[in-house]
Amino acid sequence: MELFEAMLTRSSKRDFEDKPVPKETIDKILSASLRAPSWANSQPWEIAVSTGKTSEFIKKSIYKLASEDNPGNPDFPFPVSWPDKQNANMFETGKLIYESMDISRNDAAKRKDIALYNYDFFGSQTAIFIYMDEKLGIWSALDSGMLIQNILLGAHAAGLGACPQAYIVRYPDILREAFKLPESKKFLLGISIGFYKKDSAANNIHTSRVELKDAVKYYD
């Protein structure tokens, strides 16, 4: 897949087949992704790939907490509010997701079920978690974002679906237990990855993007 095609056609997938992704495929994606740039080549990111029994433990544990409305204790606190422009973008995406599944605005039970599906890795058996040492700061988080974008594009080029998720790092103590990591390791993001259901409504929504003229200003 040509690079610009991958950039223009990638989208987040939120409904996966219940089957494993071959380790060789994950290795190929991550090997290429590790070429991401970073400040002075510091390469601050660390990666944990969850499969099999580890995924079962994580999913069961975080799903239980989320279903009990436990707010969690993410290593990097979630925003309390968003500026109007970003809030509007997020509202539109949520509306598209619920409408694609024929879930009404007033159907609180079904909306909660969809939200909880996050904690099941959207049905996938595999998730990639990105974390870094507590001594690192915002610039290393930015570097890790470039790694994450590589992973998303690599998954798309490999014919897989992927979805970056803040929700599945909402309970980092569970993750540190699963991966046997010390408290000093802080989780930035999780990525559900796998063979996505091509006919699923959730995988066929088309979210808008800001137009070039509204996003970019040239200064001569």
Per the CATH scheme, the topology name is NADH Oxidase
Unreliable segments (pLDDT under 50, ≥5 consecutive)?
none
Q: What is the H-and-E element order?
A: HHEHHHEHEHEH
Structural class by helix and strand composition: alpha+beta
**Measured distance between first and last alpha carbons:** 35 Å
Radius of gyration: 18 Å
CATH superfamily: NADH Oxidase
Q: Report the strand count.
A: 4
CATH class: Alpha Beta
Gross morphology: globular
Q: How many helix segments?
A: 8
What portion of the residues fall into strands of 2 or more residues? 5-15%
Number of domains: 1
User: What would you say the CATH architecture is?
Assistant: 3-Layer(aba) Sandwich
Explain what the structure shows.
It is built from 8 helices and 4 strands, in the order ααβαααβαβαβα. The radius of gyration is 18 Å and the shape is globular. The mean pLDDT is 96. The protein has one domain: NADH Oxidase (3-Layer(aba) Sandwich). The longest helix is centred in the last third of the chain and has 20 residues, at 138-157. A 4-stranded antiparallel beta sheet has the order 1-2-4-3, sandwiched between helices. With 220 residues, it is of the alpha+beta class. α2 crosses α6 and α3 runs antiparallel to α7.
